[in-house]
């Protein structure tokens, strides 16, 4: 199951880059190292909708992050090789372009579900991030 999930994540990342226009792909990275955002690839799906994807593999360990935003509202999920779905969150984010190549943003999970936790977390840790054009 873990291997299948890893292959699916790589396939989604690959298909996203194949079907997106070159002008619709961006890099993004966390500037604070807090919150749920990790560095990765952003795909602009048009009509104020974007998705951010990242996956890392080190030996037999892996983790992934994916979100989709419509305007300022989004859903985010994370997982690892020990927990297929470690967290899921309803997100709120705001972005401001600095110039044609750089956009800064801040997001916060409004409602965060964590596998194994007995309670939901409301308005958890925030994260500042940068979106960089190719």
Give a summary of the structure in a few sentences.
This protein has one helix at 2-19; strands at 25-30, 40-46, 49-58, 61-70, 73-80, 87-97, 102-114, 121-122, 127-133. The protein is mainly beta and 134 residues long.
Describe this entry's structure for a reader.
By secondary structure, the protein is mostly beta strands. The protein has one domain (2-133). It has 1 helix and 9 strands. It has one helix at 2-19; strands at residues 25-30, 40-46, 49-58, 61-70, 73-80, 87-97, 102-114, 121-122, 127-133. It has an 8-stranded antiparallel barrel with strand order 1-2-3-4-5-6-7-9. Strand 2 (40-46) and strand 3 (49-58) form a beta hairpin. It is globular. The model has no long low-confidence stretch (mean pLDDT 80).
Q: Could you state the order of secondary-structure elements as H and E?
A: HEEEEEEEEE
Proportion of residues in β-strands: over 45%
Number of strands: 9
Q: Mind describing the biggest β-sheet? A: 8 strands, antiparallel, barrel
Q: What is the radius of gyration?
A: 15 Å
Number of domains: 1
